[in-house]
Amino acid sequence: MPKISIKSQNKSFEYTPDKNLLQILLENDVFVDNPCNGKGSCGKCKIKLLEGNLPDIGETEEKLLKKEEIDSGIRLSCFVVPQEDIVIEILQKEGKHDILTTGYTPDFEFDPLIHKEVFKIEKPTLENQGSFEELICKTFDVEKFDWRLLQQHEFITGKVTGVFNGRELIAIECGDTTDILYGVAVDIGTTTVVTALIDMKTGEELATASMINAQKNFGLDVLTRITYEVEHPEDGKEKLQYAIVNSINEMIGDICNKSKVDRKNIYEISIAANCTMMHLLLGIDATSIGMSPYSPIFTKSKNILAKDIGLKAAPGARLYCLPSVSAYIGADIVAGAYVCQLHKAKENVLFIDIGTNGEIVLSNHGKLLSCSCAAGPALEGMNISSGMRAAEGAIEDVRITESGVEVQVIGDKRPIGICGSGILAVVKELLRTELVKKDGAFIKKEKLEESDYRYDMIQLDGRKRQFILESSPDQILITQGDIRQVQLAKGAILSGFYALLRKANIDMDNLDKVIVAGQFGAHLSADSLVGIGILPEKVEDKLVYVGNSSKTGAYMALMSANVKEEIEQLAHQIDYMELGASEGYEKLFAACLIFPG
Amino acid sequence: MPKISIKSQNKSFEYTPDKNLLQILLENDVFVDNPCNGKGSCGKCKIKLLEGNLPDIGETEEKLLKKEEIDSGIRLSCFVVPQEDIVIEILQKEGKHDILTTGYTPDFEFDPLIHKEVFKIEKPTLENQGSFEELICKTFDVEKFDWRLLQQHEFITGKVTGVFNGRELIAIECGDTTDILYGVAVDIGTTTVVTALIDMKTGEELATASMINAQKNFGLDVLTRITYEVEHPEDGKEKLQYAIVNSINEMIGDICNKSKVDRKNIYEISIAANCTMMHLLLGIDATSIGMSPYSPIFTKSKNILAKDIGLKAAPGARLYCLPSVSAYIGADIVAGAYVCQLHKAKENVLFIDIGTNGEIVLSNHGKLLSCSCAAGPALEGMNISSGMRAAEGAIEDVRITESGVEVQVIGDKRPIGICGSGILAVVKELLRTELVKKDGAFIKKEKLEESDYRYDMIQLDGRKRQFILESSPDQILITQGDIRQVQLAKGAILSGFYALLRKANIDMDNLDKVIVAGQFGAHLSADSLVGIGILPEKVEDKLVYVGNSSKTGAYMALMSANVKEEIEQLAHQIDYMELGASEGYEKLFAACLIFPG
To answer: Taking the complete model, does pTM exceed 0.90, yes or no?
Structure first.
């Protein structure tokens, strides 16, 4: 079999010459960015050929690359089906990502569903030979329990500690182990996963770990992952499940090491995630989420054996999955709504989590209505010509001043692309400085004085204008297409925002608070949000940021049986409005496409 | 690594030279008889060296072999730790075993716990996006179900068939599949396993398969398998479980093939087995069964997911394990007691299953008392110098007449050993012809006329006498030690028999019926049983044989929810008497050692 070697990563592996290079690389765990999921449209999966030969370049691939790139041996890996030994270089390196692990937590009482109690199991005798199972039922005063508990035990007697999930016995330990009780709270985002180790005796967060969701290899967003599942009926679901389960197992290993805690003493893993991630976590088909009428397989909370999906913790450890509302209002949003106590709000509060989907929950004095807006990945830096995720080297803020363009780069590195907050910032600045008009079109450069430094920054690419944000060493462009992507995203979110208010009969003046949640939202300044009209101007001084409320909700559910109950009730209280099916939505959406100005 | 080749089996494999040859052979699935489980005491695990060298013979091994055997290259594989390439011959070939798969079945009504119903799942709409889980609960009118059912499904709508285990939904199938409903009944014996495919619509037995319990490689009886588990804490339990689960899976494949049934349409597997086999089947520690006070981990019935122990059938298929009474009155005996309706007996009925353990249940007009007698493996042909299991070449019946000794051999082959029923027959004949006295000792040959053909058949081996049953080509001996083994076994069973009667205050004249159950019992003639005093003479005309009532019980439980309930009640109704702890037992045992005559 021919061999691929990756320079700089000291990696090489054999391959069967019937797949494209992107597939081969991803299957061998080599990260290559591919926002379009290998569909041949994003032009991001560049690699450089160093040794050996690749088949000739085709028409579509040629269009997506610059001539200089082609001359230097750069190819798009999704187009190339290699046949022989090659040595390549991966061009996009995966930088250190900035992942939000903290946020606001309201006061609440600790009363974990998981708890321990000490008992004494009497020794059987020849006259009284009762089975271990009978002794357990008698000693722990339970009628029955999962038979698999019996698989974990020799016949132990004497002082033991029972571990209970509510009134259900889930483990028995020798001696008194009541001092040892750990749990894990997890937020699975489509892009990032955050895991926290919790001492359930004190509620203290001992350590956190975070990483990029390993399912990225199967698609960057929810829909491409569902497509992957559909296109790989033989093992797609299993691979996606394995990727996330394995990631969580690794992170648990990591936080246990940091805190010197034995993972055998983790008794519950509490997880918040969007509805698709929850399906993929449990190995449940997510196909129906991807097509109308968007009905998921399940939304209810789950309290199951963690090992049933391969999570490694105490043998009887539970996995608690928070409930969702619908396919596009997931447990992450329910968690956030709970953390913000939307159901108990005494005013009109709007909760928004901005990402590839913008999820909005409106609380009208506790009456809850939600919607989800298909913003697309532009706001996260995807499907943008120079876009990248918020990692080292990404431009995260931009200021266009009289004298020049100032950029702020994550990690203070040489800029190699622009992430979501940077895109928003630059569009906001282009609008503020009137280089882009309210309808989203670039002005003609002729409208500027030739002496204006920005005169040269506006260029024509064919018939379309673009803005050169950085020209060397790497050119970082904002194209007319990029502006359109942002425009579609902002139109989607803003129209959802207004549709909810309209449905609830609340006008802007009566909206008391706007809560911005989530990984991505935390990096969006009020300035940008309002500046490009993702949110209306009037909310600027009503904005509150709550950070990763999804993880916080998982943490609270872990630490309190009462919170679990309340969250489950809350999920039922949130009404869901399908925007596409609501009256007059298309007109509203069109109006919301206009930038403020 | 050095290599072992097995002549005549065309098998060869590499090995690491740190284990004894018996271990290596068993690990590579080469059957070598080893009743003592490799302890170096039975002298049965003979192999013949054809090429290569083995380490020198030691003192113990030398004692267990004859000089001629040593000279011809025969060794005991448990003593030998090979170091180089060798070619060997396996001496004991595994013949075709005669396994009993049938028996008496009482009339009963079919009402299987597993059943099917047709429903219609409504299509969700944009206005009514209910999850599949919610639709299922509504459509099938269930409150909840095992979440793993969701793993098996895409979002299906329209006509579907629900498979129920009682009121629990366990599977959903597209369309109307109510005509297809299969189940499997299994009897796991320590020695043999019998599996039957049942059409649950009609109760018809479509096919049966049987095989030697693959756990034989880990020990021939219950105690040696427990010892194996104890001595291999890292994976002993898993290996024993895998062996039996794999055997059942193979047999299910076999009977499905024979009947052209898809194993995906098997919805329940109903299993009867002794308590140790049931523990090993479920991967539950059996150690405590092996030591006083003989308390097992569990005795209750189990109705669990078949795939949780690796059984391959319908995805949601159930495994039903019949209940045991105690460590030594297992589900096989409960099944038999149920099949014989002991709890409804209108007279005094004694049920006995004779094997390595003799289990007895006495019904005093429906009041049930049981005990278990450690008979040892002699009655099954083990621990007997020329003993073997009931396979081709085994002497199964013997008659000593005036003119000579007549033997009956299984498969009409050249005799190579003697099985349980043969042992009993020969001992009975030795007693009848007064070659062996009531105390079990051989008579001195001098007591016979020199002209008597039997004069030469009694020989001295050192200081002990023995009887030469066959002299050529293979010598088949009955030694004084063999007689002692039979004597111990018969003493154990007879004393259990009397102890039960005594406890229930029933005398022999008031005992109305004696039911002989089980694989082995079916081959024991009333003649032999009474002739050597395993049972008292007075029962001879009260004997009834019911065959494999363990499998029949599993079948009945499969076919009826009511039977399941009644069997579970029955298990509670059977009192267990621990013989070792009962008053005056040792004296009774001593008295029962005496042979009749």
So the answer is: no
